[in-house]
Amino acid sequence: MSEYLYVGKSIPRTIETDKVTGRAIYIDDLKRPGMLYGKILYSKYAHAKIKNIDKSKAEKLPGVRAILTGYDIPDVRVGFIKDQTVLKRDVVRQFRDEVAAVAAISPEIAEEALDLIKVEYEELPAVFDPVEAMKEGAPLVHEVDARGRPLKSNLLPLPWKFYAGDIETGRKASAYTVKDSVSTTWVNQCCMGPSGCVAEFDMNNNLTLYDQTNVIHLGKQRIMEYFAQIGLKGKKVRVVNTIVGGSFGTKLDTDIYEFICMQLALKTRKPVKILFSREEEFFALPPRQPAIFDIEQGCDKEGRLTFRKCEAILDNGAYTSWGATTPSVMMMPMSSLYRVPNVSFEATCVYTNNIYCQAMRGYGNPQASFAVETSMDTLAEEAGIDPAEFRLINRNQSGDETPQRLKITSCGMEECINSVKEKLDWDKKKKDKKKARGVGMASLIHVAGGARVYMSDGHGIMIKVDQNGWIDVFESGTDQGQGSPTVISQIVAEALGFKPEDVSLTMGDTGLSLWDAGTHASRHTFMAGNAAIRCCEKVKKQILDMAVQYMPKLIKGGFKRKKRKDPDFVEPDLDYSLISNPENLDIKDRMVFPRSDPDHPYFKMDVREIVRSGLHVGVGDSRVVVAEEFYDPPTEMLDREMKGNLSMTYAFGTTGVEVEVDEETGEITILKLIAAHDVGKAINPTLLLGQVYGAVYTGVGYGLTEEIKVVNGRVMNPSFRDYKMLTAKDVIPITPVVIEPGDEDGPFGAKGIGEPGLVPTAPAIANAIYDAIGVRITDLPITPEKILTALNNKQ
Amino acid sequence: MKKVSVSFTLNGDPVTSEVPITWSLLKTLREYFELNGAKKGCGVGECGACTVIVDGDAVSSCLYPIPEIEGRSVTTIEGIASADGALHPLQKSFLENNGVQCGYCTSGMIMSAKSLLDQNPDPTEDEIRTSISGNFCRCTGYIQIVEAIGMAAKESDRKELLNFP
Predict the structure, then answer these.
(1) pTM higher than the cut 0.95
(2) Is the CATH number of domain B89-155 1.10.150.120?
């Protein structure tokens, strides 16, 4: 039963035909007149004093237009806690520290100029292990903080703490308790499209930044703040995205290369492009935040969780981007994945001379869920309860308010766990266990109805219908490949009564949109969809008001013309009261009609005729159809105790895996992977599956193969040859299960699904491996080497 | 830098390029012919985003020295739709089955698949996967790409495309 014409249909991505014909313009393809090419010189040391920079030779190279060092531009701090500058003066604290930058007429000349810049360093003692870095006497990564006050330790001023209930009470109520230590490492987002931007100032020093950010408005804000400190206060900034070759978190912060690009453009008075090489993608972009967890849980005799206590250490690297804030998201699974009354979570972020970290799909949740779901399995075993049954006992349920005060509205966790059990033939596999084969599962909770991490979690949208009945949607989000142009077209067409192909979307342009908190946190379909539906109500009302005004005229005009042609024509006696009140009219599939008589032979009219009449009505009376909506949901910021209902709704899902482990080689084969997700409602089932599949694959990579090898601060594997991302030959037999209970607050019932698929994948695999061979690998990725070592130690 | 004159067939047309001798086919396509479809995802032949077809075979154009293209026939993503703009079955099936997300790998992915289908019109799933095993994708998990290639091979199974203006 579907009352919808377009929602719930797998409308193809025809709106993006440019992407299959080579016509889509990515940042690599963008050229501006007179454009120069920027390149960055990085540090040669993990920690050193800059003694001298000699750029005289490089400056003489023909074709070089500018060379900047930290001494040439204002020494302004940027970043999440303002702990770094754009180009580094005096001290470098990691290998990716930007020491100098060149603008030249070609990328090759810029590259050549980099080689000619001579930097003298004096190496300083460095620290690479976060635990070492916490000890007294460890080399200090930063001598002073953002305000110039001396620092005594490498601990960040971000004491992430969450407490609910009382751990001791929980402990007393426990029949069983377990302690586990797990860790996760750096992984790269691996966007296929390299990072880059083009900065262009006009003669009044107003900036247009052609970019790939997924936070156009926040990005603009950061740039304006930077400008205020470098003498460009009040200058205008417009951020415009090209087509974006993937994001997965990399584009959540305004990166240092973007500020460098602006400085080069300012200096040269020319548009400047910076485009990363693949090597830079691996060593000069902040990857996923690694973390070390000590987790303790207990349950009573019936298997009900009594407490969860966890301490985490995060290797922050040398500076602070969004990686350091991932504990704010870790608190969600820590406090709210399964029902647990007493919770304590503390996370410490520590400066080291390693690369610093950023967001990546899931934003701390994959790390924390790996800890929680590992502990769930060990506790189930301790209590002698089947791991699936143990999860069902403790499952989240509709109507719950979790210890973090998350209000659980729609919740399909029970269905997710049960469908994994069924599709994996769980009970049978557990009973008749085959050697070296095993099954495991893990679940997830994630925000799926916005995430109020800023004071505004709003999304603005403007919709106009032109005189030909084409709809222009000015959307404040961005598309990094998820397919929003198609999905939002479906929502607009459904809500307004037009067709998806009538809709054109403009996204990713601060000059053509209202505020949006960003296309992150799996929030875009939910937020933009809700904004669109509300905006469409206003647009529809305008059209129906026009319909009441013009339909009788249009109908009577038609009769007049007929009469002229055919003098015998008799005008039918119509009850015009049917169309005299906009509330009695509706629009569907481009047709306006009376609700009481949808197939009325005269009163069913093409909406485009009505819109055209309204515009071309004559002097002083003509009207355009346009409306705007700003949807900011009634959610809460986390309070001082890090509690509050920050999302309108939450995503739930369970991944179940069957593996086979080759005990000779340590090789792991995934025989089956069930990804069950409560998505509320699939607006476009095919596109939704694409989100699940992609996320699961990245999750399998996280679990089994992917690792940025950082040795003494240096990235040792900055290439696709040495960084093991999965290929098409790595067949993961995924069975998706899409559960659609409908969410009362979601647009047509939909919840976010961008990140969830990744979150439980690695722990489900780890649990299946334990079931198969009886050894538990607690540090990701689970490589054959680790399996063999663990098997040897077991014997 | 010394330039080299190279004549070859590009998307069916006879062309001559005059570019520095060190340029790759990819750089020549992008900068001399302004064909931006092939992408530089890594520049060292590891990711497949730059894949084009040379004399029937899918190759990494970033590794292909321009002097060696003399006399050969090159097909890029820009050259596979028909002259009237009708999309190639692969282009259609990628749109229909969500084989494209961010789209950065898509040109290379489609060219690898086209080379396969030209030589093997009815491939097995394993053959499809092998044909694109040198093309990395982070968005899709490859599943809907593999399906899309299979759909293109069996054109009769395809759904009608919506006609977007």
Answers:
(1) yes
(2) yes
